[in-house]
Amino acid sequence: MALTHTLKTTFFELLSKDQALFELYEKAGQDGALLYEAETQEVWINPSFQKITGLEASSLDLLTFSGLLHPADLYLWNGLLHGDDRNSSLMLRLKVEQGNWEWFQISQQQNASANQPLLLFFNLLKQSNPEEFPPQYLNASISIPEFDRLLLLEGFVNSNIDAIQVADESGRLVYINKVASRRLEIPQSEVNQYFVKDFEPLFEVAGEWEKHVEEVRRVGKWVGESRNFSVKKRKSVPVEISVTYQKISGKGYLVAVSRDISVRKQREEAYRKENDKLQQILKLTSTGVWEVDVATGLILVDERFEQIRGYENGELSSFDWDKMTKSIHPEDRAMLNLLLNGHLAGDASIFQVEFRVRHKSGNWIWCLSTCKVVQRDERGIAEIVSGTLTDISLLKQMQIELEESITIFRTFAEQIPAYLYMKNDEKIHIYNNPKSAEFLKLSPQEINGKRAIDLFPADVALQLEEQDEQVLKQGVKLTKFIWQYLKNGSEIFLEEYKFPIQLPNGKTVVGGLAFDISETIHLREDLWHTKQQFEKLMASVPGTLYVLKLMADGTFTFPFVSENLRDLVPGLTVEDCQADAMNYFNLLIPEDRSRMISLGKATMENLRPFRQTCMLQLKSGEFRYHRLVSQPEKGEDGSVSWYGILQDVTEEVKLEKEIEMLALVAQKASDLMLICDEKGKVTWGNEASFKVLEQPAATLLGSLPGELLSKGDAKSKDWKSLDLALKARRPFKKILSFQVENGLPYWLEVEATPIYQQEGVFLYSIIICRDVTRLMDKQREFERFLKTTTDQNERLRDFAFITSHNIRSSVANLMGLSDLLIQNPEEKQYVHLMKQVTMKLDTTIRNIADILHVEQRFDPQEMKFINLLEVVNRMVDFCQKEAKMEEKRWEINIASEIQLRVIPAYLESIVYNLFSNALKYGLKDQNSKIILSASRRGEKEIALVVKDDGLGIDLDKFKDRLFKLGSRMHEISTGQGMGLYMIKRQVEAMEGSVHLKSQPNKGAEFTVVFK
């Protein structure tokens, strides 16, 4: 402890606490006074004693004061403090202000309580030779015999701590005190019976007695360590011995004072072990040790100090303070020198500082140095300073990061759009950020110190404190609460997170973070309603909405797929698609899968809309067509997303194929065919229309058909009625004349039929114009022939009537005659012969009448003989793809030799339409099949039968419009009602007939009779 160490209690403050001591001090009137407190080992001196000794402080520790005593008198001082007699007095040498040794007569006074401080009085004794006993003492002892005079020493050297042994120059013991008597186990009265040599070899000093005697005579004293041994127990005790040579009455004596240092040795051993541990800890804590000689500036460092600075062991052996100062960062150098000089001057007992020092590598490292002045000279000037050096670069970095974290937290707490607060274990606010203060319309200082009941309505406050109690008592790590209350008439929703915070003092506080989620709640409600509307909208959308994403690594994923996917692709869930997009793409047929992926990746560059149709096979084995329509969009991460809709267009594709086939048939048909839009204008025409009208497509398309067809016709109003019917979307059927430029007029049978969707939405109108010029010519010829024939028939009828009447009359007469002749037996055989002839004549006349009623039929010249089985096989091949997709199976029972006299194109159209209807409505499951057979009926008729076990047709409901153009009999029908119409017209054109047997859900059986 430094000499400048100052305690709060002064000499007079301590003295005033005990009235008895204070009275003793007042009466003494000595040169100096000292108070000693054994419990704290502290010493207090009065001002006069401070002046004598030159001490600046009025209080100091016992060890520091003992340093002012002459080394040879320390044992006397210890005996005075710790002896049995607390009223004894003695003389001691003490270093005074000028640095000289002066003798002081010390007397002690003790009050009634032994636990009170010890009060000592010091009187200065003036004499010329401080090394001699003072004259006052010698004069008082001169008449006492030689050894008895030494015994006087017992009064001021007898101590319960030190052992005193006195021997003459021959080595005989002449005196031992009580401590020595106990330690050596010999009575004081028998001491002169022993010589020092009697304790050899146990008394180590005795072995070199003569040597020690000469040394003591020469220098006056000898100090060292030895061991005292018990004579009886033969047990050694470590001691510290001080031997002085005293000459009394011309005779010399050696006075040995020995102190038991067993405890000190134990402490030194413990210190050594602790020091070893400390050295190990210093190594583990990256701490080095240094020591500086203040006078020379030389610095001694250990190996760890060098390692911290980046040097090898021994590289800093010639290290001094000047080099150390230069290696310190310039910004830290002045501050370090200032603090160090203050420490050397005694401003503080321990000096600690952080600074930057240059590493061998050239970098600056942060270090912490703790040092202390461990040695001062007699003037109190520092001589040796020792200290430690610790690398705190990592700690400093952590400190910087901690400061940054604190700054970030403060910034976060001030800027976060949430209410941040803390409450103590009594649920009182101790911190609130500005946002919470703004919410409560109070300052943070006004909120701190308040409970919830002071800030919120009672019901809300009770709820909040219950939550706080749950966090504090149950140790919940993180609890989420959502609560609401009315504020200024508005409903406020708060989402609050509460959590316990453990403080270093063991207490727990509640931390809270609350967000005003009122807008979020209202938005969530709006989103919920929007979601309901969106779900309803998605349910009404004829398809599945999706988002397909191509990641940067080339893999596909579905971030979103609407729930109606399961209806579109049975057996495939939304989760399957989101887990792996290939679960959908693997259902595509291989060629379509490769095409779709290639085309999809191609849109990554141009980001153009994507629209493709593909075929896939479901897990059930059924083939379906899907259409993907989407818009690609490129993300910042390099991925591409397609936002689109997935639709099942199987029926549409089939319809397109049917329309394509029908368009092909219509395109090649000899009849003129046109399609008109809702305004009655032409949007399509077949080859015959361009050929008949002799108009280019640019002129034909977009025109009104009545205006085109009325040219050259005086009765153009009939053609205008066609345009009016088209605009009104009404059916129209009439035979009108048409004349091309520089050509003969001919007749057209014009039939217009409006086509509607099942929902009643108008699609278009179809116009079919058949060339009936020959028919009209034959009709006119037939009419002329009919008129002539009618006239002839009238005449023939009259002729036949007359002839018949006459013949019957004649026959009647013949029969009457025959009856008369029968009565004549001789002529009977001739009469029977006459009756038989007459009956045959009557039968012949009846047969002639019947034959006249037989209708003569007209046979078109286009009709040819054709093999029925070849036509059927060709149509099966044409429909093979549909047959495979639907897993249809055919059963054909047609003999290869059956020949029909028909128009070939009509037969192919009839077979195709029958097959198409069977594919659409004729199969219920995978075991269903379509049966096609043909058989002869008599000599002139052949019946073709197509039978299925599908949906069937309700004849009671659709009988009247079964074969009309535009009629549809099923709700799932996507056709336009042209098939059955064409079948009937084509069959009847070839003088055939068509018949149907059917019941709902029990299939249908079409029979076509050819003649």
UniProtKB/TrEMBL annotation:
<dbReference type="Pfam" id="PF02518">
    <property type="entry name" value="HATPase_c"/>
</dbReference>
<keyword id="KW-0418">Kinase</keyword>
<dbReference type="GO" id="GO:0000155">
    <property type="term" value="F:phosphorelay sensor kinase activity"/>
</dbReference>
<dbReference type="Pfam" id="PF08448">
    <property type="entry name" value="PAS_4"/>
</dbReference>
<feature type="domain" description="PAC">
    <location>
        <begin position="730"/>
        <end position="784"/>
    </location>
</feature>
<dbReference type="InterPro" id="IPR052162">
    <property type="entry name" value="Sensor_kinase/Photoreceptor"/>
</dbReference>
<feature type="domain" description="Histidine kinase">
    <location>
        <begin position="802"/>
        <end position="1011"/>
    </location>
</feature>
<dbReference type="Pfam" id="PF13426">
    <property type="entry name" value="PAS_9"/>
</dbReference>
<dbReference type="InterPro" id="IPR005467">
    <property type="entry name" value="His_kinase_dom"/>
</dbReference>
<feature type="domain" description="PAC">
    <location>
        <begin position="351"/>
        <end position="404"/>
    </location>
</feature>
<keyword id="KW-0808">Transferase</keyword>
<dbReference type="InterPro" id="IPR036097">
    <property type="entry name" value="HisK_dim/P_sf"/>
</dbReference>
<dbReference type="Pfam" id="PF08447">
    <property type="entry name" value="PAS_3"/>
</dbReference>
<feature type="domain" description="PAS">
    <location>
        <begin position="274"/>
        <end position="347"/>
    </location>
</feature>
<dbReference type="InterPro" id="IPR036890">
    <property type="entry name" value="HATPase_C_sf"/>
</dbReference>
<dbReference type="InterPro" id="IPR000700">
    <property type="entry name" value="PAS-assoc_C"/>
</dbReference>
<dbReference type="InterPro" id="IPR013656">
    <property type="entry name" value="PAS_4"/>
</dbReference>
<dbReference type="InterPro" id="IPR035965">
    <property type="entry name" value="PAS-like_dom_sf"/>
</dbReference>
<keyword id="KW-0597">Phosphoprotein</keyword>
<dbReference type="InterPro" id="IPR001610">
    <property type="entry name" value="PAC"/>
</dbReference>
<dbReference type="InterPro" id="IPR004358">
    <property type="entry name" value="Sig_transdc_His_kin-like_C"/>
</dbReference>
<dbReference type="InterPro" id="IPR003594">
    <property type="entry name" value="HATPase_dom"/>
</dbReference>
<dbReference type="InterPro" id="IPR013655">
    <property type="entry name" value="PAS_fold_3"/>
</dbReference>
<protein>
    <recommendedName>
        <fullName>histidine kinase</fullName>
        <ecNumber>2.7.13.3</ecNumber>
    </recommendedName>
</protein>
<dbReference type="InterPro" id="IPR000014">
    <property type="entry name" value="PAS"/>
</dbReference>
